[in-house]
Amino acid sequence: MKFLALLRGINVGGKNIISKEELYQLFTDLGFENVRTYIQSGNILFRSGKKSSKELAKNIEKALSTRFSYTARAVVLSYEQYKSAVESAPENWGSDNQYKHNALFLLGDVTPKKLSTGLPSQKPGIETIALGKNVIFWSVSKKSLTKTSYMKLAKLQVYQEVTIRNHNTVFKLLQLFDEV
């Protein structure tokens, strides 16, 4: 089966620096096939005979934590799960260049509805939040970025339960699944 691992908190702000080559090697050492990384922010596509995304996530987190000495967090999605998540985006999500569009992929067993209760209220006219399938879509006005609730996200507890990708990365990863 085809899978995507989205790693949280690597190569951001000088913390948990792991090269694409090191990630590739770890995933091949775990026995995964057709391993492919995309940009240096923890996006790894691969094939595995195992079918449980949760089991794969636990194995990957353990291996990363052991090899690179940090507390790793990851979400693993099958092709079907990822495609369904992307397709649950609001219509035209990512198409308005006046907005910054991010997808918050959920780690662990938290649901979009439960996680959304810990998010600040959206500010009408400058940001929108939409709940998808195991993902939250957040679009914020670039012009009013400093006024948005989104700017407070990193200070909130719920931030520890997500890994964020921009719309360009989200769509590129869906495209790359065909090459795995």
From TrEMBL:
UniProt xrefs under InterPro entries: DUF1697 (IPR012545)
Residues of the signal peptide: none
Protein name per Swiss-Prot or TrEMBL: DUF1697 domain-containing protein
Organism: Exilibacterium tricleocarpae
Lineage, top ranks: Bacteria, Pseudomonadati, Pseudomonadota, Gammaproteobacteria, Cellvibrionales
